[in-house]
Amino acid sequence: MKRQPLHTRTVSFQTFRREDGLFEVEAQLKDVRGYDTTVPEKGVLPAGEPVHHMTITATVDAHMEVRALESRMLATPFGYCTQVENSLQAMVGARMATGWRRAISERVQAGESCTHLRELLLNMATAALQTIPTWLAQQRMQTGQDRTPDGQRPHYLGQCHSWRLDSPVVKLHLPRFHQPLSPSTNPGTAPGAKQESS
């Protein structure tokens, strides 16, 4: 069956380590349509031209604290949109960890920012958590140290099926954090799971 492409949203995240020891998390969002669109202010927007194109670069330290943040709005439906291009500065000082979603809601009000910038910002924490703790753990392991500082519990434990505290994966690879499923535990509940603050 033939299909006509109507809309493509591309979202990407990259993380870099800087020579000064800090990290940069870069996020990009781009929306394009597969057909010419008549839009306010611009008239006809040709197929393939971005409706939205936003980028964010967050400078983060090893403790996941945001040290600096830059956002750019390279393509927007309205010129008025760009008035909130720098609306994310209130997130400097916040940590990309549990409570990140709540911090965004409290520090960056919806009517004072851009929906798409806030969407990107929310998911940058996931990219950072996939990158920075893993890189630091690998560096420690290469020097014969424990993968977590001072034997701390890794942030990902209790957050998915394989890393449930009662799973065979945890029992094999991180046995000191393994918690056997007790008879009173609901089989559908992962012991030790932490809920994200909303």
Write a structural description:
The chain is an alpha+beta fold. It folds into two domains: 7-142; 156-180, no CATH class. The protein has three helices and six strands, in the order ββββββααα. A four-stranded antiparallel sheet has the order 1-2-5-6, covered by helices on one side. Strands 3-4 form a two-stranded antiparallel sheet. The termini are far apart. The mean pLDDT is 89.
Give structural attributes:
198 residues, alpha+beta, 2 domains, four-stranded antiparallel beta sheet, 21% helix, elongated
Report the β-strand fraction as a percent range. 15-25%
Helix-residue proportion = 10-25%
Count up the helices.
3
The CA-CA distance between the termini, in Å, is 42 Å
Q: SSE string, helix = H, strand = E?
A: EEEEEEHHH
Instruction: Give start-end ranges of low-pLDDT stretches.
Output: none
Structural class: alpha+beta
Q: What is the mean predicted local confidence, pLDDT?
A: 89
Q: Kindly give the count of domains.
A: 2
Using the CA coordinates, give the radius of gyration: 21 Å
Number of E strands: 6
Global shape: elongated
Characterize the largest beta sheet: strand count, sense, and whether it forms a barrel. Answer: 4 strands, antiparallel
Going across the biggest sheet, name each strand in turn: 1-2-5-6
